[in-house]
Write a structure and sequence with these properties.
By secondary structure, the chain is an all-alpha fold. Among the domains are: 109 residues; 101 residues, Alpha Horseshoe (Serine Threonine Protein Phosphatase 5, Tetratricopeptide repeat). 66% of the residues lie in helices and 0% in strands. The chain is built from 17 helices and no strands. Helix 4 runs antiparallel to helix 5 and helix 5 packs antiparallel against helix 6. The chain is elongated. The protein starts with 61 loop residues before the first helix and ends in an 11-residue tail after the last helix.
C-alpha cells in the first residue's frame, strides 16, 4: 500500500499471490500522515516550512524590496492556509503579482512560492480524497485525486522540486497509473536520492509490477538509508520470495519479528511462507500468534482457515475451527476479496458441506480476476464430485 500515502488497505494474503502493494506507499506530505485504512503506520515528512528561497528576507534595491514585500505578504497568507479555498486565494495573489512584471530575482522567488503553494493545495485535495474514500464515496475520491495531480503538475511546471514529484507519484498510484507513478518516483529520487520514503514507494510499485529483482534492490537501498525500516524488510522478504530466495525471505521476516515481536502482520507473512514450504507446524504456530496479537487481522484468520481446510497433513486440519476462522475473516473484511470466499468454500468442503462449498466457490468466481478463474473452476469440479481440496507444498 503506498506509504502514505499509505492510503489504501494492504492485504498481502497468501504469500503465493501479490496483494495490492506489499506495504503501502508513504507520503511526503503533512496532509497525508494518516493512511487509507492502512494496516501499517504511514510515515510522512512535514512540508509546511517555506521551500528554499521562499522566506521573508531583506532586499538590496527598492524595486526588489517592493516586490519582495508583496511576495512575503502572500507567503504569510499561505502559511496560515488550512483549506483549498485559502490556498486558492494566495495563488490568485501570486498570479496577480506575476502579471505586474517583476524583475528576474523576484520572478524567480515568486515562481518558487507558487510551486510550493500548488504542492500544498495538492496535498489538501489528496487529504480530501482520503476522507471521501473513507466515507465510501469513491467517485469523489477519484475526482479529488485528479485535482491533486493537476496541482502537483502545475507545481512542477512552476518550480520542479522533488516533493511535488513524490506527491504526484503517490496520487497517480492511487489512481492506478503505476507507470507514471514510477516515473515520478524516479524523478524525485534523482533530485533527492537520500529520502527513503520515495525509494520505498518505488519498491512497492516495482513489486506490484512483478519486477522482483529491481524491487529487492530498491528495498535494500531503503535499508541502507534507514536500517530500522521494518516495512522494507517485509517488502524485501516478499520480493525474495518471488525470486525463490526462500531462505532470504525467511531471514527478513525473522528479523522483523525479532525487532517487533508484537507485529501480527509479520507473523502472518512468515506463516504464509512456512505453509508454502510445507512447514505446517511452524505455519500453524505463527498464524495462532498473529491472531493472538491482532484479533481484527482478517487475513490471518483467512490464511489459518485455508491451512486448517486444505493441509495435506490431517494433523493440521480442523473442520470446526476452519469454518469459524473463514467466517470470522469475512465478518472482519467482507466478501469483496475472492480469496476469502475461496477459503470459505474449502472449509465447507473439508467439513463435507458440499452444497455450501459450491455456493461459496461460485460467489468467489464472480468477483475473481480472469487469471485465477480456471483454478477456482478446478476446485468447483472437486466439490461437485464431493471431494475436498488438498494443498501441496513446494518442498
Amino acid at each position: 500500500m503506498l506509504r502514505t500515502l499509505a492510503r489504501r488497505q494492504t492485504r498481502w494474503m497468501g504469500i503465493a499471490i501479490v496483494g495490492w502493494l506489499a506495504s503501502g506507499l508513504v507520503a511526503s506530505a503533512e496532509a497525508q500522515v494518516d493512511g487509507r485504512s492502512s494496516n501499517r503506520t504511514a510515515r510522512s515528512m512535514r512540508s509546511t516550512a517555506a521551500p528554499s528561497g521562499v522566506a521573508p528576507a531583506s532586499a538590496t534595491s527598492t524595486s526588489v524590496a517592493g516586490g519582495r514585500q508583496q511576495i512575503d505578504s502572500i507567503y504569510r497568507m499561505a502559511s496560515q492556509a488550512k483549506s483549498v479555498g485559502k490556498s486558492k486565494s494566495a495563488l490568485t495573489e501570486c498570479d496577480r503579482l506575476a502579471a505586474t512584471g517583476l524583475d528576474a530575482e523576484n520572478d524567480r522567488y515568486l515562481r518558487r512560492l507558487r510551486g510550493w503553494l500548488l504542492n500544498r493545495r495538492g496535498e489538501a485535495y489528496a487529504l480530501s480524497a482520503t476522507q471521501a474514500m473513507e466515507d465510501g464515496n469513491d467517485r469523489d475520491a477519484q475526482q479529488r485525486e485528479l485535482q491533486a495531480v493537476a496541482d502537483y503538475t502545475a507545481s512542477i511546471e512552476s518550480d520542479p522540486q522533488w516533493r511535488a514529484y513524490h506527491n504526484r507519484g503517490v496520487s497517480r498510484a492511487m489512481l492506478g497509473e503505476y507507470d507514471d507513478a514510477l516515473a515520478d518516483f524516479s524523478a524525485a529520487i534523482k533530485l533527492k536520492p537520500d529520502y527513503p520514503n520515495t525509494r520505498f514507494n518505488r519498491a512497492e510499485l516495482l513489486l506490484e509490477r512483478e519486477a522482483y529483482a529491481e524491487a529487492e534492490r530498491e528495498y535494500t537501498s531503503v535499508l541502507e538509508l534507514d536500517p530500522n525500516d521494518a516495512d522494507s524488510l517485509i517488502g524485501r522478504g516478499h520480493a525474495r520470495f518471488y525470486l525463490a530466495n526462500f531462505d532470504g525471505a525467511l531471514e527478513d521476516f525473522d528479523e522483523v519479528i525479532r525487532r517487533q515481536p508484537e507485529n501480527a502482520v509479520a507473523y502472518a507473512d512468515r506463516a504464509d511462507l512456512y505453509a508454502y514450504l510445507g512447514k505446517w507446524e511452524f505455519s500453524a504456530q505463527d498464524y495462532r500468534m498473529a491472531v493472538k496479537l491482532d484479533q481484527t487481522l482478517g487475513r490471518a484468520y483467512q490464511s489459518a482457515a485455508w491451512l486448517m481446510s486444505t493441509c495435506p497433513d490431517d494433523n493440521f486440519r480442523d473442520e470446526a475451527l476452519a469454518l469459524r476462522a473463514a467466517k470470522r475473516a469475512i465478518d472482519l473484511d467482507g466478501q469483496q476479496d475472492y480469496r476469502y470466499l475461496d477459503t470459505l468454500a474449502a472449509a465447507h468442503a473439508n467439513a463435507r458441506q458440499y452444497p455450501d462449498a459450491l455456493k461459496a466457490i461460485q460467489a468467489a468466481m464472480k468477483v475473481a480476476p480472469d487469471a485465477v478463474r480456471p483454478e477456482l473452476k478446478d476446485r468447483m469440479t472437486l466439490y461437485q464430485a464431493q471431494r475436498p481440496f488438498r494443498d501441496t507444498a513446494v518442498r
